[in-house]
Amino acid sequence: QVQLVESGGGLVQAGGSLRLSCAASGRTFGRAAMGWFRQAPGKEREFVAAISWSGGSTNYADSVKGRFTISRDNAKNTVYLQMNSLKPEDTAVYYCAAAPWRVLSIDPADFTSWGQGTQVTVSS
Q1: Per-residue pLDDT tens over the stretch 18-65
Q2: Which pairs from 69-72 meet CB under 8 Å and 24+ separation?
């Protein structure tokens, strides 16, 4: 089991940047695909980005491609989401998630560990 704690959310103006961090504990972090998901008020949780065990492969939702970058530091048991050129429609609670023993996945059903979420608010 992997325990996850997100940080780095906040209020930012449109066009600004934020970097989210997700600190993980547990032996399987290095063998877990990691992902970021988000949920806006009144909407379903949606996939944002995912990264493979080694960090060599990534996948992004079309809505964030070219603006967001996911990365991981296995030595620090941490995964990051760099968010640039933020838009008001990026406003949501962002969740970090782990899919142990999955090389790479974007399916929420594969992610068995979830953080508590961090709020990102983008003002226009």
Answers
A1: 999 999 998 778 788 999 999 999 999 999 999 998 899 999 999 999
A2: 70/34, 70/36, 72/34
DSSP 84: -
Beta bridge partners of 80: 21, 71
If one counts every other C-beta atom within 10 angstroms of the C-beta of residue 113, the result is: 19
The answer to whether 82 touches 68, Cβ cutoff 8 Å, is yes
Please state whether 62 falls in left (phi above 0), alpha (psi between -120 and 50) or beta.
Answer: alpha
104-115 tens-digit pLDDT: 999 999 999 999
